[in-house]
Amino acid sequence: MSASPQKSWIRRHPKTTIVVTVLFFTLFFDLVGTGIYHLAKYGTLHKYEYLRVMRIKDPVFHHTLKPEAEYTLEKWGGTQYILITNSLGFKDRQVRDVPLESASRRVLFIGDSFTEGVGYGYDQTFVGRIDIAFADRQIEVLNAGVASYSPIMYYAKVNHLLKTVGLKFDDLVVFLDISDIHDETGYELENGQVIPNAIPSSVSVLRGFFFEYTMIPRNIWSTSEKLCRKFVKDPDSHPRSKEDHSYGTNTYRSLWTIEDSIYEAYGEEGLQRSRQHMNLLYQLLKDHGITMTVAVYPQPDQILHHDLDSRQVKFWQAWAREHSVPFLNFFPDFIQEGQDPKEAIRKYFIPGDLHWNDEGHRLITEKFLERWQPANPLDGEAVVAGAEGASNRSGLQ
Known about the structure:
Elements lengths: L8 H4 L1 H29 L6 H5 L1 E4 L3 E4 L4 E5 L5 E5 L20 E6 L2 H4 L9 H9 L4 E5 L7 H15 L5 E6 L3 H5 L2 E4 L2 E4 L5 H12 L2 H16 L10 H6 L12 H28 L3 E6 L3 H5 L6 H12 L4 E3 L1 H4 L6 H8 L9 H14 L9 H14 L3
Parallel strand pairs: 5-6, 5-7, 7-10, 10-11
Antiparallel strand pairs: 1-2, 3-4, 8-9
């Protein structure tokens, strides 16, 4: 008797075959449908096309803005703003070629997304407003700030601008963000280059693909993450209420100044790494005869918790005093006795976000112009005299 022919895998597993087939075609049609939707809304298949157009990788300081480019971005709330860069890849009011030397005194600002001024065109940001104000004083302003920068990038980028690009400037103003401390723990400095200290996992790559190119898998993944946060303690996040989201509060990357457990988790390490890279930046500037100013400001969490005598303030004030560097403390401008903290957040921050709105940029501009003055070059004994003189003249804290 001849043996009966062996059934195929499909016939032996009909239910599994049906499930796999349904999932395949669901994903296929979801990809097609999402692609059509993105083409209609964004003019491209990529939901985050602006990240590819304007935000590019850099082999030295990890990431930057694309030079001499102009792109319309979505702003929170459905409105739009135009991001424009100059020849150096700095946010600017127009696409232009920036000469490496200037006949005027030149001030370079550097920081993260607050300094870049996400959500607003150049002239609406505090750097752009200072630029306009300084025009009458024959002082040129440049903005090297980019979202997700931290002291390791500040040093690597300024070092590259001075030694490789040959950019000449007289003053550097460093705006240190609360989130810098968390960001510092994710990178290492190797041969002058900023290198991530962790390789993206296959899961994170898959998540990124689903969130950019699909709708159904993206929503399933997003819902699953929310459920996991409810039932599983995630050390890198806090459960956030609708009110938290509306005020930009209870964020893990900002709570290190307030909660001891979070400070122990990454805050202490992040501060020490930041100190190392700020020390390198200070020495670099001193070698080139460039003055330095350090500025700190609160995020919504610090305002909500009335964190006026903050770890951020105490640490960088001590560092600035140690290096005889002018120190600008904007915490008291946002955290005032008797003021409802939520009212202050509504007044100065973009709804549903933790970045400054128009009033926030206006406040920083006003207080900066009141307090900052060009100091003497960093040259030995003049470092101390220049820093203390600037502090006394301009009311620096």
